[in-house]
């Protein structure tokens, strides 16, 4: 029986290995992590991450050919194929701080693999890593090989949170990069056979190592660029009276462009987009390409601008101050159908409002109070370290109250803002909400999920991103 071990039981490792176990019943899959709490959760009825369909997949395989455990070295030693899916946070100090990926956890995993291995291994990069990481890992393994042969493959993930299981069942493509040597090509074919259990062969793309690594960064950069492009247009739409939904619909009908990732919003989030673009910027700078680096850096700048523009619009609309006012925050996750808050725009929006002494009442159906308080207490980039290494403020943020439903969040609020496009927010009883809010009552729709005209009929003053401005808002322009 082929044995697979995945180091790292997070958003990538857990779901990916669960689907491999389901689709390949003849393969034994072990997911290992040093976090006892995380492994305990994977073995319980309350999985550590929320992802539609994940529960069913895990329950079908767990205890049969899918195992979650903390015996890292044992399973690494026994495995034929080792997936490495550990954190690659952005460096916060030293060379490349604020842009380069910190490969501390990757290097540690590689040295551990070298220490415990007693047979030949295929080591697969599953985390998003900077170009040439495979070469560095290869050097660590070969210089500590003790006669054991290692082949390094790059197999980046292309999952979208909220649809990860469907993405794994029906991927657009599976990308496998390896060395152009007989041993490297044999390793590629070994991993290809695993995916071929359910993925059509024409969707399994084989490349060299560097192309696979760069393709992941490039894909995320292109997607983020589309979001920043439509968000830049949303600012122009507000200034001219155009409707960004109509503009993006017209643009998306062009078959060369297509309709996906053209929804204007308060900004993009998630664990990959910003981190991967910063990584790309750093690689460009290191390779003497400052103009290319500047181009990609602008995607991040527009995203930051969109968040600060949203906060400024809120503050200026509400008589230029939110000090002491209750603001309801509906949605904290970076997108619907996930509990993930990494780089969510909600963090920057909430911090911007807290900076003006607002009192926040936050509701999200999948994000815990503990997670929200941690996110609002942490410094930038700290989120990407393992939980036990994240600094935590000893006190929660005092002006933040996390509640269990949207109506409680909005009671006596001066304004409400929608920061995640959860379906339930489209069908709220807004008449009831209006009756229980302070007047004038404001709605700031950061995801364009509500019918602004209906809300205005109720009595709300409504701001929707990229839409013609409410007469009230025209009189109170967003300050820079």
TrEMBL record:
UniProt pathway annotation: Nucleotide-sugar biosynthesis; UDP-alpha-D-glucuronate biosynthesis; UDP-alpha-D-glucuronate from UDP-alpha-D-glucose: step 1/1
Gene3D superfamilies: Cytochrome c1, transmembrane anchor, C-terminal, NAD(P)-binding Rossmann-like Domain
A matching Pfam family: UDPG_MGDP_dh_N
Catalytic activity: UDP-alpha-D-glucose + 2 NAD(+) + H2O = UDP-alpha-D-glucuronate + 2 NADH + 3 H(+)
Record-level GO BP terms: glycosaminoglycan biosynthetic process; UDP-glucuronate biosynthetic process
Protein keywords: NAD, Oxidoreductase
Domain of life: Eukaryota
Active site, per annotation: 272
Domain UDP-glucose/GDP-mannose dehydrogenase C-terminal: 328-452
Any one of the GO CC terms: nucleus
Enzyme class: oxidoreductase
EC number, as in UniProt: 1.1.1.22
Gene Ontology MF terms in the entry: NAD binding; UDP-glucose 6-dehydrogenase activity
Residues reported to bind NAD(+): 8-13, 33, 38, 86-90, 127-128, 161, 272-275, 342
NCBIfam families reported in the protein's UniProt record: NDP-sugDHase
Family according to the record: Belongs to the UDP-glucose/GDP-mannose dehydrogenase family.
PANTHER family referenced in this protein's UniProt entry, alphabetically: UDP-GLUCOSE 6-DEHYDROGENASE 1, UDP-GLUCOSE DEHYDROGENASE/UDP-MANNAC DEHYDROGENASE
UniProt name for this protein: UDP-glucose 6-dehydrogenase
């Amino acid at each position: 029986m082929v044995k697979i071990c995945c180091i790292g039981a997070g958003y990538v490792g857990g779901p990916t290995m669960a689907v491999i176990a389901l689709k390949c019943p003849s393969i034994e899959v072990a997911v290992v992590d040093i976090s006892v709490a995380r492994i305990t959760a994977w073995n319980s009825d309350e999985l550590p991450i929320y992802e539609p369909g994940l529960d069913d997949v895990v329950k079908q395989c767990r205890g049969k050919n899918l195992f979650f455990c903390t015996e890292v070295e044992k399973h690494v030693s026994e495995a034929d194929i080792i997936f490495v899916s550990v954190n690659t946070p952005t460096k916060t100090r030293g060379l490349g701080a604020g842009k380069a990926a910190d490969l501390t956890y990757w290097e540690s995993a590689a040295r551990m693999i070298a220490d415990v291995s007693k047979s030949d291994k295929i080591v697969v990069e599953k985390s998003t890593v900077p170009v040439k990481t495979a070469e560095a890992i290869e050097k660590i393994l070969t210089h500590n090989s003790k006669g054991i042969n290692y082949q390094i493959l790059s197999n980046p993930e292309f999952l979208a949170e909220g649809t990860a299981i469907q993405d794994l069942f029906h991927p657009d493509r599976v990308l496998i990069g390896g060395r152009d040597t007989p041993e490297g090509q044999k390793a590629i074919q070994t991993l290809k056979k695993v995916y071929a259990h359910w993925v059509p062969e024409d969707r399994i793309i084989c490349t060299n190592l560097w192309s696979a690594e760069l393709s992941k960064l490039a894909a995320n950069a292109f997607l983020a660029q589309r979001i920043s492009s439509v968000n830049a247009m949303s600012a122009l739409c507000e200034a001219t009276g155009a409707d960004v939904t109509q503009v993006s619909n017209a643009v998306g009908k062009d078959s060369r462009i297509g309709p996906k990732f053209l929804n204007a919003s308060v900004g993009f989030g998630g664990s990959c987009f910003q981190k991967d673009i910063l990584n790309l910027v750093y690689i460009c700078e290191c390779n003497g390409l400052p103009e290319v680096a500047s181009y990609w850096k602008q995607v991040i700048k527009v995203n930051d601008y969109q968040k600060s523009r949203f906060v400024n619009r809120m503050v200026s609309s509400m008589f230029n101050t939110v000090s002491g006012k209750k603001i309801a925050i509906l949605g904290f996750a970076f997108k619907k159908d996930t509990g993930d808050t990494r780089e969510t725009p909600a963090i920057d929006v909430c911090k911007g409002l807290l900076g003006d002494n607002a009192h926040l009442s936050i509701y999200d159906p999948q994000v815990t109070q503990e997670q929200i308080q941690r996110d609002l207490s942490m410094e930038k980039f700290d989120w990407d370290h393992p939980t036990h290494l994240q600094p935590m403020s000893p006190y929660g943020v005092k002006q933040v109250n996390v509640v269990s439903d949207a109506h409680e969040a909005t009671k006596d609020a001066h304004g409400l803002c929608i920061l995640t496009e959860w379906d339930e927010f489209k069908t709220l009883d807004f008449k009831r909400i209006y009756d229980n809010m302070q007047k004038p009552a404001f709605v700031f729709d950061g995801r364009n999920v509500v019918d602004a005209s209906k809300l205005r009929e109720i009595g709300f003053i409504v701001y929707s991103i990229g839409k013609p401005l409410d007469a009230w808002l025209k009189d109170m322009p967003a300050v820079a």
